[in-house]
Write a structure and sequence with these properties.
The chain has one domain: Up-down Bundle (Ferritin), CATH 1.20.1260.100. 80% of the residues lie in helices and 0% in strands. The protein is built from six helices and no strands. The longest helix is centred in the last third of the chain and has 27 residues. The N and C termini lie far apart (51 Å).
Length: 151
């Protein structure tokens, strides 16, 4: 149980850092595609995804120690740091182009994390799949917003 609590603390600490950079008036003024979700949807979706991510990391951490498990947890931390960095780049620095490049790297890190999770705890890998799907959607949205607002 302590390993799960550790990962919940880590994930939600990073989520707290990310939440320092909110959309605000800059984002409201950007041109967005008609399929852009309403702002209120992001909070609930990310809350569910963060709970799932922390649960998956806890499942992996509960497996016997070894190089594959350690690699899996390292990749998890990497993608989590990249997740936090995206908010800073997009909302904090207001650089959608840089955020798009970064989210592409993050997407690869999530995919690698899932692949290694599958070798350690297959259920944990499946728990991460909705996160990858959401980040795939968010990546496309980021790219479109960047292109619609390129100067």
């Amino acid at each position: 149980m302590a390993k799960y609590l550790l990962w919940f603390a880590v994930v939600f600490a990073m989520a707290g850092l990310s939440s320092r950079y909110m959309p605000g008036t800059w984002y409201a003024a950007l041109r967005k595609p008609p399929w852009n979700p309403p702002n209120w949807i992001f909070g609930p979706v990310w809350s569910v995804l963060y709970i799932a991510m922390a649960s998956a990391a806890g499942m992996v951490h509960n497996r016997p120690d070894g190089p594959t498990r350690n690699l899996a947890l390292g990749l998890f931390v990497l993608q989590l740091v990249l997740n936090c960095l995206w908010s800073y780049l997009f909302f904090g620095l207001q650089r959608p182009g840089a955020a798009f490049a970064e989210v592409c790297v993050m997407w690869c890190a999530i995919g690698a994390c899932i692949a290694v999770f599958a070798r350690v705890a297959p259920a944990a890998a499946w728990i991460m799949v909705p996160y990858l799907c959401w980040v795939s959607f968010a990546s496309v949205l980021n790219g479109v917003v960047w292109r619609l607002n390129a100067v």
